[in-house]
Amino acid sequence: MDGPSLTSMLATCASDTPATAAIYAVQQFSLDELRQRAGALIATLASNQADLQQSGSCRSDHGDSVVDDSTTTIRLAGGARAVLYYASGAVEYRSGLAPFDAVFARAEEREALTRLVAASAAKIDLNAWLGDQGKLAFERLWQQKARGTDRSGKATDPLLTRVVGAFRHFVGGIPVLGGASVALRLAQDGAIDALTLRLRPSAGETIDKADIIAPELAARQLSQQLATLLGFGREQVPTDVIAEARLLFGYLDLGKRKQQELLAPAYVAQITLQHKFERQAYILAVPATQRVYQQLPLTGEQGLATGVRRCG
User: Fold this and answer.
1) 308 occurs within a structural domain
2) Where would a tag sit more exposed on the chain, N or C end, judged by fewer CB atoms within 10 A?
């Protein structure tokens, strides 16, 4: 095998890992409290939709709810809907706008769109969702565009239809890994077309303070985990099939459908393999402490869906 091993590729990505990290309790809410918190947020978003559509009131109390064992779905006027997940308290909202309703009048500079996302996010009171020592930081911007062609094949100028901003939750200065903590999709003039909120608020209580294992040790564990999964046994995965290898350190959100009592540090690896025309991606996680504070999801059916960033 030529080139650095998967272990060394992963280990070089985590150069700013702290020596210790706190273990936090996650705030636990009753079902009534979850519905109250989500209801206040949904009312704010529904008012935004009413202003956007300019078609009368679109208050959350004009909708109806569908309740099951794990979620409450609130159907609002104008095709809007919101879903509350009991296990995590996560909320997903969609305004009901058609894809080409309220599109941007013109293309905008990326910096201007970033400011627009920040201004729209500031209109939503998320402080109560962040918990003790929690902060929210802008992470990434996407632009959704469309274009067409006439009968002669001449393409039109791109049309900016939506802007999506992703935010990351930090607790005590350490990121909470997983899907975007807050994902905000905007239509024309910064109107909120969709919102996904996945925040695990930490309680005031610090459970423990633990030493963090070296990135090299975590990288070896993750490399062995992937080798075992692929049937290589104790052999390293061949480097000539590794297209990308990234390693993140932070607290781990277990997903919107899973209950979680603690925020405990973990190392998370995203590895992409390329063999001829086949491309596979794996996301693996191991505890970042000697003591195991929470059971991590396994690969496969219980695999992680986590945001990543490039190293280097």
Assistant:
1) no
2) C
| Single residue among 200, 216, 236 that ends a domain in this structure | 200
> Can you give the residue range of the structural domain that contains 265?
6-25+206-302
CB-CB contact of 56 with 50 (8 Å): yes
98: its two tokens: 């058609």
H-run or E-run covering 215:
helix 215-230
Amino acid (1-letter code) at residue 69: D
Q: What is the pLDDT of residues 8-29, one digit of tens each?
A: 999 998 778 999 999 999 999 9
Q: Do residue 37 and residue 68 come from a single domain?
A: yes
pLDDT interval class at 119 (50, 70, 90): very high
Q: In this structure, are residues 139 and 168 in contact, taking their beta carbons and an 8 Å threshold?
A: yes
Residues 48 and 18 in one domain: no
Tokens of 130: 């962040």
Are 19 and 28 within 8 A, CB to CB?
no
CA-to-CA distance for 219 and 10, rounded, in angstroms? 6
DSSP bridge partners of 281: 272
Give pLDDT tens digits for 209-230.
999 999 999 999 999 999 998 9
Which residues lie across from 5 on neighbouring strands? none
Helix H or strand E encompassing 48: helix 31-53
